[in-house]
Design brief:
With 143 residues, the protein is α/β, with parallel strands linked by helices. Helices cover 25% and strands 18% of the residues. It is globular, with a radius of gyration of 17 Å.
Length: 143
Amino acid sequence: MQKTKWTKKDEIVRVWHLVDAKDQILGKVATKVASLLIGKGKVNQVPNIDCGDYVVVINSADIKLTRNKEVKKMYYSHTGFPGGFKELRFDKLLEKDPTAPVRMAVEKMLPKNKLRALMEKRLYVYPDANHKHEAQGPKPINL
């Protein structure tokens, strides 16, 4: 009779990954980053424990969208008050905060449970190629 091995918190090994988003499609980058944060590629991934890795995304200001969505894609929010509906185009959001589109796309791809905040803390997004995680030795990921 075989027994299923269930991963414990102290058995988790976290690795640092470096993703270069320069001239990449936003959805492709976001799906790969979300998969790394969840830990989908690991053998010992279990749904009730956060088994994912650390991810550093560089050059987020140079991310691309397909089919002229730079001027068509809208981000919506509401303050909760009457007349509090706000909308912002992708290109304006990229000017305002170059890390926001990548961060928001990854956030929406993560599971909606208590582990989500822990996964988001391990995501580091930078608008250019300079980052402060060289000491961790992140491995580059090719998309």
